[in-house]
Specification:
single chain
Length: 113
């Protein structure tokens, strides 16, 4: 989990955009991790994963609007990351966090990165 978070921070600090293949590879690592472990994440890791998913979603949506051959693939990745993000938000709510608390924690991660 920490490796995925560190990689996202690295991507966010790059001056250039990663290729489709690298984006797709990272997306697949994230979804494979979630398929195996999403229900066992603690609150902090869930928040970090939410941060990862939000960035994947926004980048996927942005890239899906471009005139590139992978546009539909980017759109599907964005849709799937939104589904995962909603599932994680649901877990945080079940753990007793309010939307306001989730938002504050998310902002703290965003500010730290």
């Amino acid at each position: 989990m920490q490796d995925l978070f560190e990689k996202m921070k690295e991507y966010l600090n790059m001056d250039t955009e990663i290729s489709f293949d690298e984006f797709d590879g990272y997306y697949k690592k994230v979804t494979a991790f979630l398929n195996d472990s999403w229900q066992t994440l603690n609150e902090e890791d869930t928040m970090h994963m939410l941060f990862i998913l939000d960035n994947l979603k926004s980048n996927g949506e942005d890239r899906s609007k471009r005139k590139v051959k992978e546009a539909k693939k980017y759109a599907k990745m964005a849709q799937r990351t939104e589904i995962w993000a909603n599932a994680l938000i649901g877990r945080l709510r079940e753990a007793g966090l309010t939307d306001e608390e989730i938002g504050k924690r998310y902002e703290a991660i965003y500010e730290a990165v």
